Structures are given as structure tokens and as C-alpha cells.
Amino acid sequence: MKKIIILSFIFFATIAAFNAKAQVAPGSYWSVFGGVSVPTGEFAKSGYGDFLEGTIDNKAGFAKTGYTFGLDGAWYIHKTNWAIAATVSYQDQGQLSANDAHTLAAGYQDAFGTDLGQATSHGRYQNLNVLVGPQYTFLFNKFSVDLRANVGIVKSFSTPEMDIVVTDGGIPHPFAQLSSTASGFAYGGSADLRYKLSKKFGIVLKENYVASPGIAITNTDRVNNAGRLDTKQPISEAQTTLGINFGF
Amino acid sequence: MIKLKHAVYVLLGTALFYTSCSSKTEEAVQPNIANETITQASLKFTNQANPADTTSCTYTFLLDNNNNVTGVDSTKLTLKANSKYNCVVYMLDQTQKPVFVVSNEIKQRANYHLFFYQPTPIAVAPLISNTTPYIPGTPVTPNLPPLNLSIVRTDLDTNNPPMQVGLTSVFTTGAASTGNLRFVLRHQPNAKNGTYAPGSSDLDVNFITVIQ
Predict the structure, then answer these.
(1) Rounded to two decimals, what is the model's pTM?
(2) Minimal CA separation from A4 to chain B, in Å
(3) How far, in Å, are A175, A206, B42, B77, B151 from residue B167 at the CA level?
(4) A2-247 domain in CATH 3.40.50.1980?
(5) Which chain B residues contact residue A121 at CB under 8 A?
(6) Where are the domains of chain B?
(7) What is the dihedral of CA A49, A226, A223, B167, to 10 degrees?
(8) Do B188 and A224 count as a contact with CB atoms less than 8 A apart?
(9) Which ipTM value was assigned to this complex?
């Protein structure tokens, strides 16, 4: 679905470019936006895998569809369609569900071959993305299409903590994956469609993709190499937002 | 520019608000998987000096039709004096059809399993460390002739750093003697540190041992 949207934007942008001969250069703007943030890839996975088959998924994030909001802006280089753009956005990608906790409890129980597995989770995925990059704008009457590439950082405010206890022969063996406030490199791209309502005011529909190879995760009391062990959580999000933009 | 500043304050304030919000706790318990079922354990020996010289001992839990243990059967271990034997552990779960080779699964789960071998009687307390297969607390009986047998585990798991497992080992015999060999499999989930103490026992059996 995301590919279709991006390809649609590119197609529209190409048409716009052919029709943009007589347009003046676009004006710098900033905008506020909000919308839905959908986890993708490993970040969205919610499986454990199989210990004996060697398919344990250490990176499954158990993230959920959530929301995002933030500030966005683009500053155009003099009389060109090129701009330096920046986005600051906050995301909440939810927390583990009861089913996820069951998945972890069963997975760790199997991986350690114990009588009992117990998983307790609290805390949410909450992070801030700060991204900058070049933007090119196609003008088409009151519409503008912006294509952008981004790099920056993702700063985590929290990740779900997972407290595990495997019990065997009546003896509990606890360990935990802690909440992370680490930062990581992030990159991505976006395509948006702006509609000018007045000279200085408009609305913007944006499709944004952000990915990070991972933020550091700390685990405590892990003595043996068995079962899921996540030390770096990849984060990737596809976001669809609606905003209002102000020219300056 | 003032509007932008206000918007930034609102954004950051909202972010901090959501960050400070507590989330609910999800908890799940997944019970009812028992330790490995072992109905038969064998130690198979090959004389290092003569590969044709092999021997074994087997401990069997006798089961009724409902898989309840009705008795045990243990064969004697006989080794040559002043020899070195390579030993391999072989364990079965005969309650499954086809019969399940538990020792293969123990190999896959080696990072939290550890075998112990304790000859008795002993005249002096054995060296106990995270690399010796002897069981702490074994009674010392200086007035009895000891079983002249020492054991070294030879296989390693994939922990970091690797630790011994004991599915394979080397038995070194001394002068002719008799006694018992206590054979224990410890299950130490996320607790294996090379010592006997953590965890619980999946198997704890004895073999009458003759060195001749």
C-alpha cells in the first residue's frame, strides 16, 4: 500500500513537473501535522520463533500502530525548487498486549525447557525523530508535491520492559529486557501533497517512512545464551499525516 | 517566528505529557511443560588404547502401560585398570513413539545443562570447581578403599565464555577397585555457571562400578 502511494505521488509529481514551466519558485513554509504511525519490518513482528529449530526472532519489536505529531519545515534555496527541510516528530507505537506476553512466556519456557514461564511487560514505545534532508518541490497551480530524503536520529523515551521468570523444579530464574532511552541513527524519505488555501496558508498530506538500524537495549541477569535476547531494537515506521502549513 | 516558537513549546509539552503517562501492565504465565522425560540412560565407553575394546552401562526406569515407574534396572560398569576411556552419554525417552533420543535434545539445550560424575567411595574430598565434574558434599570415607576413577568432561557449550557440558568425557582408571559411579544431569535454566548448585536434577542415578 505504501509503495502504491509513493508511486502515485511520483507519477503525479512527474505530470506536475511537465506543467510547471511557468510557475514561480515555491516559498518556504513550516507546518504542524498529526496522523497515524504504522510499525513495519522487525519492529512490527510479534513472534518468538522456535528454539530447537534455531529460528528465535531476537529483534521482533511487538510494536503497534500508533500516532505521530510534529513540526515540519522547508527553507528554499534562492529561486530554486530545492529546499533544506527538517522534521521533528513524536511517535507512540503502543505496548505489548496480553497475547504478546503469552508469546514471550511460552517462548522462553520452551527455550529454557522449564516447568513454568512467566512474562510481565509494561511501558510503551515512545520516541522522537529529528530528521533533516534535501527536498525538491514540483509546482502545479495550487498544488505542490514535495519529495524528500532524510537522515537524523531517533531518540527513545521508552521501550516496553519485559520481565521474565522461568521456573524449574520450583526454583525461579528471573531476567529482564529493560526499557531503553537510547538514541540511534535514522533515515528515510517522504512524499507530500500540499494544497494552497491562501497565499500563506495551506494543508498538507504526507506519507513518511523512517527507519533506524536500532537503539541499544539493555538486558539484566542473562546468564546463559538461550532464548530471545534483543540487544539492539530496529525501529521502522510508515506514517500518514495531515497537517496545516504556513508560508513565510 | 513567535507563532513557530509557541508551536514548538506546545509540541514539546505534549510529548513530555505523553512520555510521562504510565502504561498498563500485561502479564502471562505459561505452565505445564515438565523436565525432560528420561526412561533410559547409558554410558558408552571406548578404550583409547584399543577402539575395539568397548563397554557400557545402562540405567532403565521400568514403566507400566500408563508410563508409571514400576521399578529400575541398572547394569554394572566394568572398566580395565590403568586405562583411558572415551565416554559418550546416550539417553532415551521410551514413552514416545518412535523412541525419542533425549541426549540429542540435551545437546541442543547444552547451554543450561551440565552432567556430573562422582565416583565413590573417595578417600579425600575432590577438587570442586566450575570445570570439574564432581559433586560437592560427597561423603569422604578414608577408611574404605576408594574407587580409582577420575573423569574430565571434554565438550563445550556455546555460552560466552563456553562452559563444559559432559555429554562426552574421558574416564581414567587407576588400580583395581570397586564402588559406585553417581551420574547426574543438572538442568540450570539461565543459571548454569559450571557448578553443581544452580537448578534442579533431571536425572540422578548410580552404577555399580568395577575396575579390574
Answers:
(1) 0.85
(2) 31
(3) 27, 60, 11, 17, 12
(4) no
(5) 25-27
(6) 35-211
(7) 170
(8) yes
(9) 0.82
